[in-house]
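Crash report, auto-generated. Payload:
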Amino acid sequence: MGKMERKFSVVGKGAHVKDAREKVTGSLKYAVDMKLQNMAYGKILRCPHPHAKIAKIDTSKAEALPGVLGVLTHEDVPQNDWESAWFNYRGKVLDGIGRFVGDDMAAVAAQTEQIAERALELIEVEYEILPHVLDMEEARKGDAPQIRCEGNERDPYEVKWGDVAKGESEADVTVECDISYESQQYAPLGRNACLAEWMGDKVTLWTSSQTPSELRDGVHEALGIPLSKIRVMALPCGSSFGQWWSNNFMIVTVLLAKKIRQAVKIELSNEECMGTVKRRHLERTRGKMGCTRDGEITVAEIDHIIDNGGYGFKDDVGFFCVDMWGKARNGHYAVHAINTNLLTAGCMRGVGDCTLGASVERLADRLAEKVGMDPVDFRIKNQIVAGDELRMQHSRDNMKGDRDAYIASIPPHLRKDWPELFHLSAGGTRAILEKGAEAFRWKQRWRGWATPNRIDGPKRHGVGVGTGAHVCGVEFEGSSSSMVRINPDGSAKVHCAVGRQGQGSETTQSQVAAEELGLSLDQIEIETGDTDSCPWNHGSLASSTMYRTGWATRAAANDARRQLLEIASREFFDGVDIDELEITDGEVHPKGEPRSNRRFTFAQVLNELRSETLGQTSSITGRPAVPMPPSTTFARQFGAQFAEVEVDIETGQIKLLDFVAVQDSGTVVNPQVLKNQVIGGAICGAGFAIYEHLVFDEETGAIKNANLLDYKLLRCADFPHQAQVLFEEAPDPVGPFGARGAGESPIAAGISAVAQAVHNATGVWVDMPMTPERVIRALAQAH
Amino acid sequence: MKSQMGDRAKFWAGGTDMVLLWQRGEIDLDHCIDLRHLGELDYISVEDDSISIGAMCSLSALERSADEHHLLATLSEITKLMCTPQTRTLATVGGNMCNASPAADLSPAFVAMDAEAIILGDAGERRVSMFEFFEGVNKTALRGNELLKEISIPLPVAGNIAAGYRRIDRTVVDIALVNASSALTVDASGKITKATVALGAVAPVIVRSEVAAVPLVGRSLDALDDAALAASGEAAAGDAKPISDVRASADYRRDMVKVMVRRSLADCIEQLKG
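Recovered output after restart:
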């Protein structure tokens, strides 16, 4: 840290998030708070069956109800497929088929919410019941009811290296697993709404979204209208974790507004937020892992299935554990994605890392136990460090062709600063494991595998360690861009469509711009939601905001800075090379002389231009000159977490007693923001490990606990208040000021730490979530 | 007022359960009769032979009464498990009883303590044991215009009484998946003269397990070993009629009755032995 503090003036400094005051005082406006003049209220008719087709729909009674402005059915909807980011939804907006209980079937607009609700009851639908399938194993069978035209299952997604048979023969010990995971719900604390208003052939949407550009793309695909006629104004999300990207109800709102020729707002209830949008996948891992007597993994064979529900289309879930455990000599991982008649599943924070990753950690832990190795040492021995080759090379396929040919085809000016592709550019788990083990006093507290470190009547204490990794953003759907504008008064504004899901991106992006421009943080404003002013951006997903958007923001700020210095040089510094100039605290001055008398504010520089050079631009717009390198091929973030738990072996209740979370996200741009990210991830991971899961009706798949009474989220008081967060800053060669991604490795690491701690306390491995009842059942089975 | 408005009106105490029912569309009313200005129903008093808790006493007031009597200390600990500190300032003891949730935390404790409900009606007051006060989920012994006035907990004339309460919950803010309360009365020689075990969330009403008292009554406090407590728990589990739902399975609930009863009895013994 010391080195960094001297080097940077804004980056690395703890700063409150820019919207803290608005949030605390309740003045920040979310989509549910928005109103438009002369606005109608919309409600969605939901499918009562797991799989059914509308045979007949009669809306006349609903339309006749006073106050009803119109009903939208599938007959009004263009039959185009649209896709959400990362295949989190693929399908039509409405097509007259319900694919899960709660699916969108039609919508009503009325003068009040109450009238709209009553009108829903007056829509008469005759359903043709279709055969349904809820279980993903059943859905794979040849005679299973088909949910999608593409079939329930497509080709698996695979990673292979070495020779698996050889790896098996080299193994002295092997372990196998068959682990199932329940479905976690994003469980947002804030609800969402969408407002849409047409003016002529242009539409504007206001909704809480992390992916404004992707939402605009979705409306474009669904309606078949030009992108230039769609404006998304993404508002902050209370919390999202992947839920509020581009969601079908938003496009329903757009079409409903079009039909009634009036602005419409559809506001989802808590139950709709939890039961009709999306969720984490149900997953199952069958796997095998082997190692030598001294703990070198020789083989990893994983067959993993995930259910996508009705509309999910994702199959490349979480391979980042494959890279993390990449020292394994041979491996074969296959992921099969299957559609079922359950609520759509999509990317939730740490997608795959919380499940597939936890299975790999479990296999590795059981190997370590068999060969009698400390789990920290076992991880250090088998996990990658900077410079190692990455196992996940699928980007190569996205690059269309041979890897070497791809690299050779890149123009030198683009390739100049790229690290070696398909090798880890920076960081790894070794340093964070060592730092965490010291802070946690792991060597003193760990008493050996399946050995409690304290017994107090029926209460057993155990410690555990877990690791997690994730990509730092993805480039496959386009390169995230950013724009920095310097106004004539010297103020600067960043335009980057990353949305605001509460993780502090509006603050950290501003810090990046401030650092590059030589301004203070409060001189930077930022727009994160308006697609009319922001260039295309992937949004806040795949842990990309700091890494990929931050890179673009820095490049844009650098471009703006260059333009500013060129003007300053010409107007004030006799045309010197701009490298001879510097900016400190918002003033341009000769290099190394921040107190020089010849120093000029941004406003002076720009006003000079404005007053004397008519016809010239008076504000500066900076943008990245080239796209960012394909970072999936080299950048990863890592988390290592240590936990102590207390397990009551008579009741199965688990208490979290202590937590140390160490994070390697490269340079820390804002320690306060990163600490929140890490602790938030750890709590969410611990919640997944011990309580969180949706309960599906066995017959219909309807969700039985779409409420916060029976969907148990950990509260702050359930998490050890003395939890420590530590950083290890291995600077990245490409990321802005050496920063990398952060949001998703911390959730994965905590899950495995808690699972291992429970094992060490009780001697049994419990499938997640480790509810009291499951702990008791696992203990009973063991005896 | 209630007699004028009839079934289209309900009493409003703290409103913390009523608001939820209203939001979920589970009640359909024309009027709510606000009791919050009835200061005379907001009291806790300790006499030689009983403890009286006014129906409008808030949960947070009950929580603060721990120093006044050791049974109130037990009740105080129970209230700390209920909802959140903010909600406890609004929620009332009477409202919690009249909502008649089988999972309510205070209900089994009142039943174990042999408490009585004092009910005000047009014809004056009547008394009903708290065991009989609960008639089903959200159903009580209140009839017509009647109003719960007070919970009265009898105290033994000689000897001592202690009560314990245990529950299974998940996160810090949760309702009980299963709970149990027990009360032991001992005479001056330390012999157990009365034992009451009450179970929550294992039936539509609070279950009072008579058989659970058998291994305990008549024995000396010092002679109560783990086996006796376990026997009581086993017996109680036989009286439980739990269901499986999204929160827990019937089997788990029944098994936990054993543990909760045993632990709540151990709490009583610890208190009685000082």
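Post-recovery validation: Chain A touches chain B at residues 650-651, 653, 691, 695, 704-705, 709-710, 712-715, 717-718, 771-773, 776 (CB under 8 Å).
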